[in-house]
Amino acid sequence: MYATLPISDGEYMANGPCKNITQLLDANTTDLELTLRFEPGLSLDRYVDSDMKSTLSPSDCATIWAQTSSALAHLHSTCALIHDDVKPENIIWDPLSRNSVIIDLGAALNRKLLPDGFFNPSGTPPYAPPEYLRRRKGVEGDVWALGVTMLFAFAHLPLPDGKWILPEVFEKEEVRREMGEWLDEVEGWRRMLAGEKEGLLSEMLEADPVKRIGSKELARRLKPEGQF
């Protein structure tokens, strides 16, 4: 069983194998289709209770955290890609095999092809990093987005539901204020988690992208899998 998507949705997915990143099996340029490996399990946003809080166990979360960090390090270092849409909906978890997979590279950006200072207003509102407001985009934003995802996975907060339209933060003061209030909430969690068992999350949620932990260092510090 395979998932088939429009060709534009996975332009860069063949750039090196990684078991925690969805794999391109075939490309049909005539019909503009890609055939992707079927990923068993459910996306993280499906593991919730009636209050939209995560029902994943701490052990599940630790494994997901380690695996997805390693996947991001592979995307960033080996494939020279920015995923640009890391979120619970784009991470599949299979509790039977205890394997997680990052999916949907439709928004992925090839760093080798981007001009200096490149910015586009893509992304999902609650996972956009602070530097988005300064029209900056890079691999650091993927780390931030995974940090917010793990705040949800560890049940610190419900599944984020920010519905503001990202490009409007540059046009409407009320939209910019809404995003700012959300970033303030994330900063509150960052401060609370510093020095705790999940304190590495605070380094992922550092507001300054220059000071934010990189995916390669993050993956190194989260090994062996499932341990903090």
Automatic annotation (TrEMBL):
Alphabetized SMART domains for the sequence: S_TKc
Keyword Isomerase: no
Keyword rRNA-binding in record: no
GO cellular component, one term: cytoplasm
Keyword vocabulary terms for this entry: ATP-binding, Nucleotide-binding
Transmembrane segments: none
Domain called Protein kinase: residue spans: 1-228
This protein's name: Protein kinase domain-containing protein
Gene Ontology terms, MF aspect: ATP binding; protein serine/threonine kinase activity
Pfam families, sorted: Pkinase (PF00069)
Gene Ontology biological process: intracellular signal transduction
